Amino acid sequence: MRILTPSKQILLSLSMFALTCNINAQDQNITLNQDPKFEQILNDKRKINTSISTNETYRIQIFSGKSEEAKKTLSSFKKEFNPIDGTIIFNTPNYKVLVGNFKTRIEAERNLAEIKKKYTSVFLVKPSK
């Protein structure tokens, strides 16, 4: 390792200090020019997406009854069947616990067989089209 003389050391320190003082972050304003057709296409896409039904999946109903019991049922279900999602839906006069989001009937029936081992009154809910 080479040892610098005091004058070179001072010169090097001053030049490093001068360089660090001139460093600036990105402080320029950016303007984005967008084609007006882009907004129109985006709005058309939003209209199409709202018309597509998102309820095209099979679900399994595991409970129908009072609110507190539905919450307890959903909680115990999530502990035992962690990867399967579930939700509570109010349908007068009962709260229903629906689980799963299965794309095919075969997949839903496989899970139905497993869930039937723990919950007795379960059945498959078909997607409404």
TrEMBL record:
InterPro entries: SPOR-like_dom (IPR007730), SPOR-like_sf (IPR036680). Residues 1-25 form the signal peptide. Residues 52-129 form the SPOR domain. Keywords: Signal. It comes from the Bacteria. GO terms for molecular function: peptidoglycan binding. The keyword NADP does not apply. This is Sporulation protein.
